[in-house]
Specification:
By secondary structure, the chain is an alpha+beta fold. It is built from four helices and 34 strands. The strands form nine sheets. A five-stranded antiparallel β-sheet has the order 6-19-18-17-16, with no helix packed on it. A four-stranded antiparallel β-sheet has the order 7-34-33-32. The protein has a four-stranded antiparallel β-sheet with strand order 8-9-10-11, with no helix packed on it. The radius of gyration is 40 Å and the shape is elongated. The N and C termini lie far apart (102 Å).
């Protein structure tokens, strides 16, 4: 018989009623006194559960002192017994720790699988929600474009008609101003001034008609007015919750939109009005040539027109896709909305009817009407090509390959220069009416998420991804 703890023949053998194993009496009693369990199967045990076994005993002489060999052997035996017991406990703890680690790893793997499933269900629910269209009368079928019951007032219709009549008459005969930038001056544009980071996460900018004030906002719910001449923020505008998605001037009034669906209008630094019509993020803003009508588009698949004279909602039109970009025709009678489905939807401003659709070959990243009144520049998300559409022919007449990703485009007032901005820099394309061809006048390595022409197109003002403003002007 061997002791289950020490592995040696026991001097005083005892057997456990719980496990049936044989132990050295002094070792098992010490173990039970410390742990209260059978060392083999872990069941609760007391010394009463130990049965002493009869065997031939060898009587050891009592060691007189530790200087004698028998006493030293006894000490060594006691030390060996303690070491054997400790080794046995360590083996038990190691086995238990391995089991706990195995269980923890299994639970971690199960948690990862649950999180992945919940994330997938969440994404599916969001996608399903995005396909639901809500209008003033209840749920729409998500296919037909619908106009709510408000409609444009007779006063707004009259202003739209008067603006169209006034601008369309003079557009063809309008000459290039004498003090306008020349192609040679554009070729000499280079960065002459750069601001410090202003608003983190800024996505758009708008230039005041003076050419000195730039309106922009960031992802922290704050917008501001930056002075180019002073190279600093001259006024901050508290927008509230949500990141600023777009900013635009309506005369001297700054207007900003947010991801929370709120549009706020300011004057002299104070909020004078706000709208919260969209059921979700407001993607873009546009101002009518009359200056009296504001348009917004959103992820709820609708565009909304507002009367800026009375600060009221004029109409809301629902489409069949999320809308990402917006712009008014220079004469003001048409409104263009770019969709996530790759369609550029052209609407009659007065009636809200869908006049035409153009295929943008991908979710619309940017669009801009030319001041010539017939061309529309369109960029698909992630594309390097600017598509030029002719509204009269309802067809694409030119594809300008810039060679790098494009985030934003902007025409100058004369309609001869088109600037495209992206993370790799800026490119200015010129159309010559006499030669009827396009040529690149400028390529700059200034990265930008948005860009706009300054006063008389004598400079370019770009917005960097880190919220910096860069001024490009003739060297």
């Amino acid at each position: 018989m061997l002791c289950a703890i020490s592995g040696e023949a026991p001097q005083v053998p005892v057997a456990s009623r719980k496990s049936g194993h044989v132990f050295e009496k002094r070792l098992i009693e010490a173990y039970v006194a410390e742990n209260g369990k059978d060392p083999v199967n872990g069941e609760e045990i007391t010394t009463d559960d130990l049965v002493e076994l009869q065997s031939a005993r060898i009587v050891k002489p009592r060691p007189p002192t530790l200087t004698s060999i028998p006493s030293l052997l006894s000490v060594f035996q006691n030390e060996w017994d303690a070491l054997a017991l400790e080794t046995y406990n360590l083996r038990q703890h190691l086995t238990q720790t391995r089991q706990e680690l195995s269980t923890a790893l299994y639970q971690h793997d199960a948690a990862i699988r649950v999180i992945a499933r919940l994330s997938r269900e969440r994404d599916e629910a969001r996608e399903a929600l995005s396909k639901i269209t809500i209008n003033g009368d209840g749920m729409a079928n998500g296919e037909a474009m619908q106009v709510d019951g408000l409609g444009l007032s007779s006063d707004l219709m009259a202003r739209v008609e008067a603006t169209q009549e006034k601008l369309s008459k003079t557009r063809r005969k309008r000459a290039i101003p004498d003090d306008w930038v020349t192609p040679e001056a554009v070729q000499s544009f280079q960065p002459v001034e750069k601001s410090e980071p202003l608003f983190h996460g800024a996505q758009s900018l708008s230039i005041h008609e003076s050419g000195d004030l730039v309106l922009l906002g960031g992802d922290n719910g704050v917008a501001g007015v930056y002075s180019v001449s002073q190279n600093k923020i001259v006024r901050e505008l508290e927008v509230g919750s949500g990141a600023v998605t777009d900013a635009i001037w309506a005369g001297a009034r700054p207007i900003v939109s947010t991801t929370s669906g709120v549009i706020k209008i300011f004057e002299d630094g104070a909020e004078i009005s706000s709208f919260n019509v969209h059921k979700g993020k407001v993607s873009a803003l546009a101002i009518h040539p009359s200056g009296d009508i504001l348009a917004s588009v959103g992820t709820d698949k609708s565009y909304v027109l507002y009367d800026l004279a009375s600060y009221t909602q004029a109409t809301q039109v629902y489409t069949d896709a999320e809308l990402t970009r917006a712009g008014f025709h220079p004469d003001g009678h048409l409104f263009a909305a770019g969709g996530s489905d790759g369609q550029i939807k052209i609407f009659d401003v007065k009636t809200g009817t869908n006049a035409a659709n153009f295929d943008g070959k991908g979710a619309i990243q940017a669009l801009a009407f030319s001041e010539n009144g017939t061309w529309l520049a369109v960029v698909a998300k992630g594309s390097t090509i600017v598509s030029i559409w002719d509204l009269r022919k309802s067809s694409q007449i030119k594809a300008l390959d810039i060679g790098s990703q494009i985030e934003h485009v902007d025409w100058d007032y004369t309609g001869q220069f088109l600037v495209a901005a992206g993370p790799s820099g800026l490119s200015v394309q010129q159309y010559s009416k006499s030669a009827k061809e396009w040529s690149e006048r400028l390529r700059s390595a200034v990265p930008a998420v948005a860009v706009s022409w300054g006063a008389k197109a004598q400079n370019l003002i770009s917005l960097g991804a880190e919220g910096t403003i860069t001024l490009l002007a003739p060297s």
